[in-house]
């Protein structure tokens, strides 16, 4: 937003950018914000009168310590300890659109941009100090906001005295992009890693104590004066729409009212429990659409037999078809992965306060700036007019139901003219959240007599992960918007696996099939943590073990012989060594311990620029079908390690989340509705099934910019487990999740 | 249904709320605007995010009527404070357990009650005591470390008290 008011004036209060400015005409608006644009250094870094530094970041910390790591990167460049750097995140009026939480890019994009800004700020501070002290900039040293002539500590000045409260008033080069693609570069070059004093040190998180002491304010804790509580009324069957609504059915509930906009239906009441009661009491007559879904048992046949909508082929290497036709030995297998739910710990909640001259939306969506754009479109107001404040919520693993709640709250607040808080119920959070897509994967390899892979062909076929956009940048991308009549055209995108192998001929491709419904589909697929990563790599890395078995090779050695990059090799070796890997073909590590079978499996590859290898040790209990990944070893190379303390717990979370999806999670549905709607019908991992040990080997690359850690480890967990289960039992499981029932059934066939 | 005015004992104070006969304790507590945790997770007693202590025992506040909560209710914020955190809360802080943190009432309130009567639990006993609680971020290994750390600290504290006596 560009406003004529001087940025300097706005920065007087050290980052307090919220002021009241007159909008066009004589009407004085509610407080609005004016922030400098991305090409202005003051958009990124502010030094307060007290010398405290504030960094403005268009990303958000979802509880993985992103804020701390960025504070370390900023502090490093400004020669100050990270705890003197405060972050402003999650406010569209105070931060530039850096894409929000997205693709494990928090440090790779967010941190690197802020590092450039901080380095430039430090350069300007050096210049100003040089003038002030009458000494060349190269002779100055700085720490914690003071800058002095080397060897003459009394010739000093503070950052606060130089620019505190005034701002830098300097440009920074911006590439003209928003979102993850946004990049800025200053004249200053960031520090060489050899000089690091702040980056690379373990630093504690900032959000933990408040969460543990019960004082942290979640979006669901927000109470806005005069707000109404709302529950959205969702149809009993996919595709059903309300035919008639009996508003009199709410007559016994104080203050309860119904809002309907086309097929979007909600109840509101001043007291939350009354809103819940109203949602249960409301009598609605629904249309009876034909069944939207096939039998669940026929899901993978449906995927195989449905018409192809879009196909995309990755960069072709060599001539795989010629190799496959050459008479070389061919190994082939297919793998299946179900729909999975975000199943955030609580159903989504959002609050909106839409007024004639302003609108504020509080959400736990990962993409605040996109949400602001979508809400503005809904309200028919200009982009930038809606302020979105991102708050912590009940877990976010991609495009979950958070943005749907925010759009619903905005729609309702606009209708009733009061602030509205929307929260779902459990069955809505699990039954109606956007899903991770179901898919079928076919892998083929041609091998020579020595077991070298000559050609590789991998094809994913499934539902698109873009049936709705991964942001809420338009009402049509949200459930509330689709019910209200905004027509969505599903996008088509799946993805390609990222392996570490140098194979002379290869083809990777995907093909999408049409969604079951274009609109208000409870099985609409979108981004779930590491979109398509677990699906594709369950298949591809299981398959490489199948090749190892067919050719009598050790799975680690076979992978290593096809690698040429030193980093890939170091990661796989790192995991194998830490795990005490014993060489031999799949099955060679089998042990019997009492009534359990023990095995070890490996999986590795790349994701989001990060290199990962996992060795899982599992115990399989044939009598019960239980698979327990007792020990999991992860070797992890995400370039520069900024905060090793935070990184370790982030990787642990990836492993456990990955195990949950590999072993337990599968959306169930009948012909017309999702039937896995709570923790009993959509089980996730229990603490009983948590590994005894997760060993993490961090391979730090100080001279390589940091890449992501928030999700890439997740993608290799299922294959490592399936390979370990094969090692233990001799049975190959090609359909996820590896539930006790499937294990028992699979072992019975032997 | 008729509204009634109810007095609840929450974190050592008497709090008045208006409820229906079927208002779950969780919703009554959430009417108290100064209280953040507990959270609504499922409303089905399946996850634990709404756990509070009722007379020292962990209960799922989403699944009992407010009118039945006639005893002393302690929420996460009443278990300890920034100045004096409960040993389980301190262990959670030391181990940096939570990611989103929405689930912590379940784990901490259950672990605190468990450790009161189980001074030196084994790994298997801890897993059994916490079975059924849900965490979606996958912090379970940190949870196990934190409970073991808290058990050690509480055992030491008990020993120190014993010596002093």
Annotated CATH topology of the domain at 7-199 in chain A: Aldehyde Oxidoreductase, domain 4
Number of helices of chain A: 18
Q: Would you identify the CATH H-level superfamily of the domain at 7-199 in chain A?
A: Aldehyde oxidase/xanthine dehydrogenase, molybdopterin binding domain
User: What is the end-to-end distance of chain A?
Assistant: 66 Å
What form of chain A results from the Cα inertia axes? globular
Number of strands of chain A: 31
Number of strands of chain B: 5
Give structural attributes.
heterodimer; A: 750 residues; alpha+beta; Aldehyde Oxidoreductase, domain 4; 7-stranded mixed beta sheet; 5-stranded mixed beta sheet; 18 helices; 31 strands; globular; B: 165 residues; Ubiquitin-like (UB roll); DNA polymerase, domain 1; 2 domains; 6 helices; 5 strands; 39% helix
Describe this structure as you would to a colleague.
The complex is a heterodimer of chains A (750) and B (165). By secondary structure, chain A is α+β, with helices and mostly antiparallel strands. Among the domains of chain A are: 193 residues, Aldehyde Oxidoreductase, domain 4; 154 residues, Aldehyde Oxidoreductase, domain 4; 124 residues, Aldehyde Oxidoreductase, domain 4 (2-Layer Sandwich), CATH 3.30.365. Chain A is built from 18 helices and 31 strands. A 7-stranded mixed sheet of chain A has the order 13-14-11-22-19-20-21, sandwiched between helices. A 5-stranded mixed sheet of chain A has the order 16-26-25-24-17, sandwiched between helices. Chain A is globular. The radius of gyration of chain B is 16 Å and the shape is globular. The N and C termini of chain B lie far apart (55 Å). In chain B, strands 2-1-5-3-4 form a 5-stranded mixed sheet. Chain B has 2 domains: 76 residues, Ubiquitin-like (UB roll); 78 residues, Orthogonal Bundle (DNA polymerase, domain 1), CATH 1.10.150. In chain B, strand 1 and strand 2 form a beta hairpin. Chain B is α+β, with helices and mostly antiparallel strands. Helices cover 39% and strands 15% of the residues of chain B.
């Amino acid at each position: 937003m560009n406003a004529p008011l001087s940025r300097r004036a706005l920065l007087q209060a050290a980052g307090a950018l919220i002021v009241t400015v007159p909008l066009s005409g004589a009407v004085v608006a509610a407080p609005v914000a004016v922030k400098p644009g991305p090409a202005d250094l003051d958009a990124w870094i502010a030094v307060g009168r007290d010398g405290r530094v504030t960094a403005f970041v268009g990303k958000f910390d979802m509880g993985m310590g992103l804020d701390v790591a960025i504070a370390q990167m900023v502090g490093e460049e400004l020669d100050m300890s990270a705890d003197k750097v405060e972050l402003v995140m999650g406010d569209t009026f105070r931060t530039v659109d850096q894409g929000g939480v997205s693709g494990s890019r928090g440090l790779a994009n967010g941190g690197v941009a802020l590092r450039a800004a901080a380095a430039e700020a430090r350069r300007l501070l050096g210049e100003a100090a040089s003038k002030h002290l009458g000494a060349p900039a190269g002779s100055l040293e700085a720490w914690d906001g003071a800058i002095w002539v080397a060897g003459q500590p009394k010739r000093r000045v503070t950052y606060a005295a130089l620019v505190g409260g005034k701002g830098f008033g300097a440009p920074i080069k911006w590439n003209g992009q928003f979102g993850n693609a946004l990049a800025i570069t200053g004249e200053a070059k960031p520090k060489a890693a050899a000089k690091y004093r702040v980056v690379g040190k373990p630093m504690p998180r900032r959000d933990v104590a408040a969460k543990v002491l019960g004082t942290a304010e979640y979006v669901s804790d927000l109470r806005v004066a005069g707000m109404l509580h709302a529950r959205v009324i969702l149809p009993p069957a996919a595709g059903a729409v309300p035919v008639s609504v009996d508003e009199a059915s709410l007559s016994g509930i104080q203050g309860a009212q119904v809002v309907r906009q086309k097929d979007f239906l909600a109840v509101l009441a001043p007291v939350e429990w009354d809103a819940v009661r109203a949602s249960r009491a409301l009598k609605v007559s629904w249309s009876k659409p034909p069944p939207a879904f096939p039998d669940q048992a026929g899901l993978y046949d449906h995927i195989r037999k449905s018409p192809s909508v879009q196909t995309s082929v990755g960069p072709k290497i060599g001539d795989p078809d010629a190799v496959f036709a050459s008479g070389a030995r061919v190994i082939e297998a297919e793998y299946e992965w179900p729909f999975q739910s975000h199943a955030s710990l609580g159903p989504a909640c959002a609050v909106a306060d839409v007024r004639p001259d302003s609108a504020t939306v509080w959400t736990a969506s990962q993409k605040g700036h996109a949400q602001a754009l979508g809400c503005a479109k809904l309200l028919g107001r200009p982009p930038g007019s809606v302020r979105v404040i991102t708050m912590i919520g009940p877990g976010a693993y991609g495009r979950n139901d958070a943005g749907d709640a925010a759009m619903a709250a905005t729609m309702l607040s606009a209708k009733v003219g009061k602030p509205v808080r929307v929260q779902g119920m459990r069955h809505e959070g699990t039954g109606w959240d956007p899903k991770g897509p179901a898919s079928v994967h076919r892998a083929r390899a041609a091998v020579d007599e020595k077991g070298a892979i000559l050609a590789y062909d991998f094809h994913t076929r499934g539902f698109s992960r873009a049936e709705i956009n991964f942001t809420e940048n338009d009402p049509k991308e949200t459930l509330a918007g689709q019910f209200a009549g905004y027509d969505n055209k599903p996008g088509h995108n799946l993805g390609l696996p990222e392996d570490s192998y140098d194979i002379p001929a290869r083809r990777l491709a995907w093909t999408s099939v049409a969604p079951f419904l274009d609109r208000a589909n409870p099985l609409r697929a979108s981004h779930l943590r590491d979109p398509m990563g677990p699906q594709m790599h369950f298949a591809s890395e299981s398959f490489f073990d199948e090749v190892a078995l067919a050719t009598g090779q050790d799975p680690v050695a076979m992978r290593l012989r096809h690698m040429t990059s030193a980093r890939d090799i170091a990661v796989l070796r790192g995991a194998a060594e830490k795990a005490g890997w014993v060489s031999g073909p799949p099955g060679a590590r089998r042990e019997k311990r009492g009534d359990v079978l023990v095995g070890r499996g490996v999986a590795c590859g790349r994701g989001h620029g990060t290199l990962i290898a996992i060795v899982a040790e599992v115990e399989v209990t044939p009598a019960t079908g239980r698979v327990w990944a007792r020990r999991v070893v992860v070797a992890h190379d995400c370039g520069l390690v900024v905060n090793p303390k935070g990184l370790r717990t982030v990787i642990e979370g990836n492993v456990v989340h990955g195990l949950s999806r590999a072993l337990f999670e599968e959306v169930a549905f009948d012909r017309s509705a999702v039937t896995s709607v709570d923790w009993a019908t959509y089980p996730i991992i229990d603490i009983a099934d948590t590994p005894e040990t997760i060993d993490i080997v961090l391979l730090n690359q100080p001279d390589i910019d940091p890449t992501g850690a928030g999700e890439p480890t997740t993608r290799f967990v299922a294959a490592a487990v399936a390979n370990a289960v094969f090692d233990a039992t001799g049975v190959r499981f090609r359909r996820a999740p590896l539930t006790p029932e499937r294990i028992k059934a699979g072992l019975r066939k032997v | 249904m008729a509204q009634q005015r109810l007095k609840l004992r929450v974190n050592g104070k008497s709090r008045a709320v208006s409820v229906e006969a079927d208002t779950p304790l969780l919703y009554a507590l959430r009417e108290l605007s100064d209280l953040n945790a507990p959270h609504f997770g499922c409303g089905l007693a399946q996850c634990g995010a709404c756990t509070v202590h009722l007379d020292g025992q962990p209960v799922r506040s989403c699944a009992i009527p407010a009118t039945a909560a006639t005893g002393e209710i302690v929420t996460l914020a009443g278990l300890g404070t920034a100045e004096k955190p409960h040993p389980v809360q301190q262990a959670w802080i030391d181990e940096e357990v939570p990611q989103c943190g929405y689930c912590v009432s379940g784990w901490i309130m259950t672990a605190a009650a468990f450790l009161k009567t189980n001074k030196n639990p084994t790994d298997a006993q801890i897993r059994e005591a916490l079975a059924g609680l849900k965490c979606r971020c996958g912090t379970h290994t940190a949870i196990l470390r934190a409970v073991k750390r808290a058990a050690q600290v509480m055992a030491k504290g008990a020993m120190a008290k014993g010596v002093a006596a």
